[in-house]
Specification:
CATH class of the largest domain: Alpha Beta
Helix content: 40-55%
CATH architecture of the largest domain: 3-Layer(aba) Sandwich
Number of domains: 4
CATH topology of the largest domain: Rossmann fold
Strand content: 5-15%
Radius of gyration: 33 Å
CATH superfamily of the largest domain: P-loop containing nucleotide triphosphate hydrolases
Number of strands: 9
Number of helices: 24
Distance between the termini: 84 Å
Length: 510
């Protein structure tokens, strides 16, 4: 017999989900017991075990006088057979394969027969959400006026698919994923009974990999214990094909340290070990998410700054990273190298000791460099549009710089939401202001006024948050006539006509 069946809880006090245990204790000691229960929650949370415990409690000879009930006596023969699923007092039905109205009609005929043993006839319907509409309607009639000796226990992993009429006639007990501590508490009696030697780190890894499922945790423990004198973290990781956290940090450290050689070497080792791409990416995201949460809740325990964890988590969550390729782990490797090369290019552009004249990036020429002003732009060159209270906000220069670098990608995303807004942005120039904002300079007052509208501001913030994981601050400014004159001064025109041309341009554009 598998360990999961062998060590299945047999009493309410033996359950490990504290919320479920508390609710069942209230029902056990109440003056009346409901005739229909709905157990909902993820797989492996203990719904079937709980249903059998309830059935055993209701049919324990010691509880023949009715509620309040005692815990089921695990030494009683009937209780033991119910726990093993071998009692005529309990009928278990898989609704996934018995989902039609004829199945419910047959169940209804059985329900009106007296129990062949015990004092209650218990029907356990697993995956009840799989029933057809007609079957649900037939079941509803039975739930409304059931025989006095019948108890229905419905179980499902998808409560939202169960009709509201069924839910309203049932007492709902909601199961949640087990916490790591609850999982380890469930494994400890098994470890003691089987006389296993398990490292604490290995037990933590089993609990983490189980993802809240008692069944998966026990199954993993049983599998890794076969032929092992001592269960170590390496034993568990080998079975689960999980990547050690130290290797994940080696990869992330190489990315942050802008070391492309180390990135290639780490990914190469993982490739040689036949690492699973889906699992590796999941481990990277899980590690970054844990570090991000730690950087917010307990900054001293975090390995990276919150901005770093948030940025890396956003980048490795992009769809292209998880794409399947003929070359294993290629998506992860390319993303890591992209981040390294981007950081190297940015560093190279900011060093050298020489100050060069900055250029303005235009939406139609994304290959040009980015304008970064060392001093605030004066009103002689730009007509300030935003209110002083907005301009005084300090933005994130690194975030704004990254957005300007991705300006073409940003415009493409905006165009999917609103083509007119994208066209107005393409007609302007994007640059970085001294206070860390993205400044878009336009040549038409109409464009400036349109860009200031709240509906367009909302679109820009949403697209920016989707692309970078956080919204940047935008400013929209109107080019002064001096800009137009400077632009036109390079155009060859007949002598004496330059001033007229500038005046005409001012009237048209401004």
């Amino acid at each position: 017999m598998s360990w999961y069946r062998q060590y299945r809880p047999a009493t309410i006090s033996g359950l490990h989900l504290q919320s479920v245990k508390a609710q069942l204790e209230k029902l056990r000691t109440a003056k009346a017991f409901p005739h229909a229960l709905l157990l909902t929650g993820p797989r492996g949370a203990g719904k079937t075990s709980t249903a059998r415990i309830i059935a055993a409690m209701l049919n324990d000879p010691a509880n023949g006088s009715g509620p309040p009930y005692q815990e089921p006596d695990t030494n009683n023969d009937l209780v033991q057979r119910i726990a093993l699923g071998r009692s005529l007092a309990v009928h278990e039905l898989d609704a996934a394969s018995n989902r039609g109205i004829d199945d419910i009609r047959a169940l209804k005929e059985q329900a009106y027969l007296p129990p062949q043993e015990g004092q209650n006839l218990v029907f356990i319907l697993d995956e009840v959400h799989m029933l057809t509409t007609e079957a649900f309607n037939a079941l509803l009639k039975l739930l409304e006026e059931p025989p006095t000796h019948v108890i229905f226990i419905l179980a499902t992993t998808e409560e939202h698919k169960v009709p509201a009429t069924i839910v309203s006639r049932s007492t709902v007990i909601r199961f949640s994923k087990a916490t790591p501590d609850e999982l380890k508490a469930a494994l400890e009696p098994i470890i003691k009974d089987q006389q296993l030697k398990v490292d604490a780190a290995a037990l933590d890894a089993i609990a983490e990999a189980a993802d809240g499922s008692f069944r998966d945790a026990v199954k993993t423990l049983e599998t890794v214990s076969a032929g092992s004198e001592k269960i170590t973290l390496e034993t568990v990781q080998t079975y689960l094909r999980t990547t050690p956290t130290t290797v994940i940090y080696d990869l992330l450290d190489a990315v942050i340290g802008k070391q492309e050689r180390e990135v290639v070497e780490v990914v190469g080792r993982l490739r040689d070990q036949n690492a699973d791409q889906k699992q590796l990416l999941s481990a990277i995201l899980h590690t970054l998410h844990q570090d991000l949460v730690a950087s917010v809740t307990e900054p001293k325990s975090a390995k990276y700054a919150k901005r770093v964890s948030q940025f890396l988590l956003t980048q490795f969550s992009l769809p292209e990273v998880s794409q399947v390729s003929p070359i294993p782990l290629l998506g992860i490797e390319l993303k890591a190298l992209e981040l390294v090369f981007r950081a190297q290019d940015k560093k190279a552009g900011g060093e050298g000791g020489k100050t060069s004249k900055p250029k303005v990036i235009t939406p139609t020429q994304p290959e040009q460099s980015i304008e970064v002003s060392a001093t605030p732009t004066t009103s002689s060159s730009l007509d300030r549009v935003t209110a002083p209270t907005v301009v005084d906000r300090v933005g994130d220069p690194a975030l704004s710089m990254l957005l300007i670098e991705k300006w073409s990608e940003f415009l493409a995303a905006v165009e999917q939401r609103n083509s007119s807004l994208a066209a107005m942005l393409r007609s302007g120039k994007a640059s970085l202001t001294a206070n860390g904002h993205v400044c878009v300079e336009v040549f038409y007052q109409f464009h400036r006024d349109q860009l200031k509208q709240p509906k367009f501001q909302t679109i820009l913030e949403q697209v920016c948050a989707t692309l970078l994981g956080q919204s940047a601050f935008f400013e929209f400014q109107l080019a002064q006539s001096s800009h137009v004159a400077d632009t036109l001064s390079t155009v060859a025109v007949p002598t004496g006509e330059t001033d007229q041309l500038v005046q005409l341009a001012q009237e048209v554009f401004l």
